[in-house]
User: Fold this.
Amino acid sequence: MTAETEPTRNPFANYLSRPEYCKLAGITQRTAELHAHARKGPRVTIIHKRAYYHVSDVTAFLEECRNTATREPRARRTA
Assistant:
C-alpha cells in the first residue's frame, strides 16, 4: 500500500480517556485528577485540557498497586 491508499491509524488506539480509566480502576474522576496532580497514579497525557492514559502505564500502575497490597504483613512486636 502506498501512503495515499493506506488507512490512517488512530493515534489514540492505545490510550484510555479519564472516564474509561476511572471505570477500569474503580475510582472517581476527581480522585484521578488528584492523583494526576500529586503524580501518584499512572502517567497522564493532557491534550487540549483532556486527560489520556496509555494502556501500558495503567497496566503497570495497577500491577504495582496489586503487588503493594499483597505484601507480607509485618511481624508483630513483642512486649
Residues 15 and 55 are 6 Å apart (CA to CA). Strands lie at 15-17, 45-47, 50-54. The first strand starts at residue 15 and ends at 17. Residues 15-69 form one domain.
